[in-house]
Amino acid sequence: FKGDDTCEYLLSSGRFLGEKVWQPHSCMMHKYKNSEAKNCLIDKHIVFIGDSRIRQLFYSFIKLINPQVKEEGNKHGNIPFEDKSASIKVDFLWYPEVNGSMRQRIKSWTESSVAKPHIIVAGAATWSIKIHNGSNEALTQYKINITSIAPLLEKLAKSSDVYWVLQDPVYEDMLSDSRKMITNEKIDAYNEAAVRILNSSSRNSKAKVKVFSVSKLIAQETIMKSADGLHLPESSRDTNAMILMNVYCNKIMKPIDGSCCQPQPPLTLIQKLAFCFFTFGEEKKPAINTPNVSTLEMLLHSFCKLGLIMTYFYLCDRANLFMKENKFYTHSSFFIPIVYILVLGVFYTENTKETKVLNREQTDEWKGWMQLVILIYHISGASTFLPVYMHIRVLVAAYLFQTGYGHFSYFWIKGDFGVYRVCQVLFRLNFLVVVLCIVMDRPYQFYYFVPLVTVWFMIIYATLAIWPQIVQKKANGNCLWHFGLLLKLICLLTCIYFLSYSQGAFEKIFSFWPLSKCFELNGNVYEWWFRWKLDRYVVFHGMLFAFIYLALQKRQMISEGKGDPLFSNRVSNVLLFISIVSFLTYSIWASSCKNKTECNELHPSVSVVQILAFILIRNIPGYVRSVYSSFFAWFGKISLELFICQYHIWLAADTKGILVLIPGYPMFNVLVSTFIFVCVAHEISQITNDLAQIVVPKDNSTLLKRLLCVAGFFSGLLFFSAMQEQSGH
């Protein structure tokens, strides 16, 4: 732990992930776009001063501002660059040696009457080695010259960002005869002198010349690809320029996936109040020793555990205590863990208690393996590989399919449209996310899946609860009620279709206050519309499937006995063959996708093909329907908590990176963080279940009072949120 300043990691250490992706030691580097670079450097003057290697860095840097720039002009002269649209001025000054001329130029910037550059990037040595044939006298003179320049650079560092770039190693075998005297031994001696002399008079001062030593590490890996043995290949120069951009811009732009050089965000008023609440709970923590625990004791005990867990969440992803790394996708990092968990899942196979289609154990198993695959997808960064992305989209759709299937089945069979049922479901879905919104200072829509299942639950409830209420018991007496229900479903489908092609109408609905506070992200509801539209039909498909399945079951047209095929042998075989072909056809189509936007347009209509194919493959053979994986089912019971907790205590920087508890040991780090992550998710699931029994009572009058308290709580949140926004402005 090196305090709040992670710039030291960025400037001095790191490793390559693959061939071209540079990973700083345990902090995340943002890849700046041209527009972001311009916004950061607006009205800034940047100066690169030095030799041909600094000129290379200059060109790579200005290409981040304007990619159209050509490397042309006098190589041994000054080169100006200006972006008038953002008032950015970047100059390269040709000073190949650390001598009196360079000192005079730097001294001119220290005079009060002269406008100082905002960023100064300097470095030189190889020309001194070359001109003086690598003599020891040249090294001695270099030390004298840099000693005279160091106080001037340190003075500039009080008002500007000053970087001294250490000399990269050379590839001696490729050097021309005129450069043979430039050896790595000589370069190391010059670098050692620069490091020792710079900042020697201001060791305890905050204003220091920043030593840019990371380029040496990058060069050690890539210099053999150099064209002449002296100058770095373009990819390495671009990496150095991006590091420079991160060092300066991260504290200004505050990108989520750029944790290097970012200060810890200040606590908001709501976070401070939450901290006080949990601290008070810890002080009042009861000792639970007896089996008969009172409601108050259970409530306090749950909040105490929750307080400790939320402290861990905050430390992992808001404080700068633990470090973060960028994701890097390789096929092996995704597919090897997938094979491993599948083997484990098959190993823990048990008989089901019941053999109905989509019984509880089977749906828990389904949720479990899907959640594990999604977790591996996120930590491996597999979203960059389109075929994997398209298959993961089907898994998310399958969750929503189960939402439609499960809630429709409950309301259709039970006919229970009471407030208690609604409150129980809403509490279990939203409790953790509401707490995280407060503690982690994130909008509700940030945890997009929970708003998605919450809204769809309310849509299912409204569709079935609105007059006339049609349930199975009523429909059994008169078949016409079945047509009435189908009419309701058709109306629902029509509304979905209309909203999916009318972005304006959709945004108007969710832009009304206070709905807008829940569904806005970055100041608008576009992200919510995109997420909703992406799987707009699959909940309807789940409801329709439940209706057809329960109708067939009621008329005894399917066989659900242990070991029996779902239909007659002939029909079962035909359906099984069609299902396997459909499943594989969808996978082939998804794997051949070339454009994410076009495939996302088709996804809502065709994802149901693979979902239905999987259900039939899993349920038609009786022996397959009669077993389940207890390993996957265990994870399925806490799948919602796993999905939400991963944002902050397994991944990092709001899912953009990976949490680093143990730096330098990537595999061991993943094992430890995964163990803690799964334990925390399981604990939160238990806390949610315990609190649901207390906060949502069955007695209607008590429940009404609790609902008034909840309304008051959210009103308070809205009030404090408005205060925060006002103070922010």
From TrEMBL:
Keywords: Glycoprotein, Membrane, Transferase, Transmembrane, Transmembrane helix. It comes from Charadrius vociferus. InterPro entries: Cas1_AcylTrans_dom, NXPE4_C. Residues 253-707 form the Cas1p 10 TM acyl transferase domain. This is CAS1 domain-containing protein 1. The chain crosses the membrane at residues 328-348, 368-389, 419-439, 446-468, 480-499, 534-552, 572-590, 632-653, 665-684, 704-723. GO terms for cellular component: Golgi membrane. The keyword Flavoprotein does not apply. Residues 22-92 form the NXPE C-terminal domain. The keyword Signal does not apply. Belongs to the PC-esterase family. CASD1 subfamily. GO terms for biological process: carbohydrate metabolic process. It is a multi-pass membrane protein. GO terms for molecular function: N-acetylneuraminate 9-O-acetyltransferase activity. It comes from the Eukaryota. It is found in: Membrane.
